[in-house]
Request: fold
Amino acid sequence: MPEKDPTTPRERYRTQVRAEVKEHAWEQIAESGASALSLNAIAKRMGMSGPALYRYFAGRDELITELIHDAYRSLADALGAASASGADVPGLAHALRGWALEDPHRYFLVYGTPVPGYHAPDEITAIASEMMALLLDAYAALVPDGAATPFGTHLEEHRGWADGHAAPPAALHRALSFWTRLHGVLSLELAGHFTGMGFDPALLFAAELDDLLERGGRSTT
Amino acid sequence: MPEKDPTTPRERYRTQVRAEVKEHAWEQIAESGASALSLNAIAKRMGMSGPALYRYFAGRDELITELIHDAYRSLADALGAASASGADVPGLAHALRGWALEDPHRYFLVYGTPVPGYHAPDEITAIASEMMALLLDAYAALVPDGAATPFGTHLEEHRGWADGHAAPPAALHRALSFWTRLHGVLSLELAGHFTGMGFDPALLFAAELDDLLERGGRSTT
DNA sequence: AGGTTTCGTTAGAAGCTATCACGGCGCCTG
DNA sequence: CAGGCGCCGTGATAGCTTCTAACGAAACCT
Reply:
């Protein structure tokens, strides 16, 4: 017999339905993208009629916001798992690319074209800085101390986003480059801008990663 | 008195209306993004009723496709103008950033989240390779011959996208890095992922550009 | 067992894309 | 210059969407 559960049956049912809605939402996004996500279609696929879903989500916007949150959480978990099993900088890069290729639409939910009115809630910026902390950890273990670049000194005066992390400015700079460069390659690859060009995007990604390492990680001699 | 014009009055009227529709579309995109673009709203703003626009555009998709085309054209022209007035690699980078900041939504129309079913027509890939040619020109004038990177040799076997350009493989590699890295910074900046972090995105862009140059352009001693 | 809360329904308003049939104006030609 | 062909804009209509409102029924808690 089940242990005493502080959650009422109604609550459990509610969260279960919400999860099922999200599941259908992800399927629909995977086939047609987030812009084509339809509450009506989800409801019909679940065997109930349109407005029923408004008992569970305030509207389309709230559902999408929650999907974005879950996507962020999923990415942070993927990077966290890699980091926990001892991944270094290239390990994190590999985890990032794996996560991106696993579901391109999910990647674009996080890093794609922003919705005009949307402003990220604190919960999401917290996840973002959680990922940044992972990256800074990996770079702090790698960077010697770093010749101060002009941008590095600028960062030293604006390191609030590092959230008290003790990484040297050179590591901050490297982490930012890691982020922007790999996003650059991944974004263009997933958006299909490389299709028809013939070369292997994986090799371009690897080349960018090599460049990132050659430049920032010469301390582990 | 006007010179003899091979275009009939009807044709002129037609192209004029089409241009006006696009103008309103750009305004609407600038305030609410491309996903919120509404033929109906445009028609009303122009003082005519909904279905009238279907005389000028087959549908919403055709209008958006044409806006994307115009955006590509605009970017290629911006880069072309810079190139024509003697801009080198950093000059092209500056032109790119200027164009991007001028209208972020237009940037995302080109490089943002792709629409699921959409496949770029030949006309657009032609513009893309036109821009790539500009970039390759600038790099060919800069790169010595380049120590062959592994990815460089891979590119040598898959250089179809360079469209017969005589640039050495190192230049191809550098041009690709230019593209992906600057897109990485710009994309994250325009999407607002740097807001609240405190540092100046322009300096990060400049730092990435410096890195791009330091590595690829040491021939101009 | 009764009362309250929550669920799912149908109905409806407002918006959108897109198609159709119709009337009228404008352009080109005879 | 007048006739006729063709294009333009309209209203009506179908079908889709989000989202609100009111109602009945079911399930939960006391």
Chain A has two domains: 1-57, 61-216. Confidence is low (pLDDT under 50) at residues 217-221 of chain A. Residues 61-216 of chain A form a domain with the Tetracycline Repressor; domain 2 fold (CATH 1.10.357.10). The radius of gyration of chain A is 21 Å.
